[in-house]
Amino acid sequence: MNPKAIATAIIAGLAGLAAGFVLANTLNRSTIYALKTQLDQRAAQPTNSNRAGSGELSMAPEEIAARIAEADANPTDFAFQKSLGRALYRFGTINRNADLVTQARRLLERARGLNSKDYEVLVDLGNANFDIGYFRTELASVEQSRQIYQEALKIKPGDSDVQTDLALTYYVIDPPDLNKALLEFEKALKMKPDQERALQFLTSTHIRIADFDSAAKSLERLRAANANNSSIPALVRQIENRQYEPPQ
């Protein structure tokens, strides 16, 4: 089968999961970002799964392995590496499959080698490195995600979502670089003053450095952006108690 046709088929199969992925990825990254709260209040759910009610494609592991083998057999086909890598990243994230995300990262890295200026490849590759780095406690992968986000921002400097993800690479490391995180969150808010994730984690960062007055101000900005953000009660409690609460 033509590799591009395979990639197209996979993307088509994943299309019905697009809205569900937005929510699943948000929930996943809320855990990653250490507050364990839903960052986005959208109620999107998978609507076109091949397994009714499961939120998963009915794709057997051997089928996935065959697609990956096709990509390896066509290493210079940029479009195929990109399409399959991005699809596998989403599928792996939805299913909390770190091994599949690792395979996706490999394909996306190959795509990046073929075209280092493709914005979508860079963003997904940065996200894959971030997720793997956090879940496997690989500092090098988080640092790699930071570098890739910086590359992406050179192409699209006004993307507040990617800028927020860049800031989070300083927030989640152990030990965190909270002063640098503050600077990078502020950059995201200059791009988009109501960037919800940036406001949420800016508030948390202020709390972590015991700057409770600044935390209260950024919390009010978060309320103005989305009064229903589910992190607000915990942030209020921490500000009132003047004490940061690590995630449980």
Walkthrough of the structure:
The chain has 248 residues and is mainly alpha-helical. 69% of the residues lie in helices and 0% in strands. The chain has twelve helices and no strands. Helix 4 runs parallel beside helix 6, helix 8 packs antiparallel against helix 9 and helix 9 packs antiparallel against helix 10. The N terminus is likely disordered.
Which short descriptors sum up this protein?
mainly alpha; 12 helices; 69% helix; disordered N terminus
pLDDT < 50 stretches: 1-58
DSSP strand content: under 5%
The whole-angstrom Rg is: 19 Å
Largest sheet: none
Mean pLDDT: 81
End-to-end distance: 48 Å
Structural class: mainly alpha
What is the 3D shape? elongated
- What series of H and E elements makes up the topology? HHHHHHHHHHHH
Find the count of extended strands (DSSP E, 2+ residues): 0
Please give the count of helices.
Answer: 12
Share of helix among residues? 55-70%
Secondary-structure map with pairings?
Blueprint: H1 3-15, H2 18-32, H3 61-73, H4 78-94, H5 98-114, H6 119-135, H7 139-155, H8 160-171, H9 178-191, H10 196-208, H11 212-225, H12 232-241
Helix pairs in contact: 1-4, 2-4, 4-5, 4-6, 5-6, 6-7, 7-8, 8-9, 8-10, 9-10, 10-11, 10-12, 11-12
Quick recap:
The chain is mainly alpha-helical. The chain contains twelve helices and no strands.
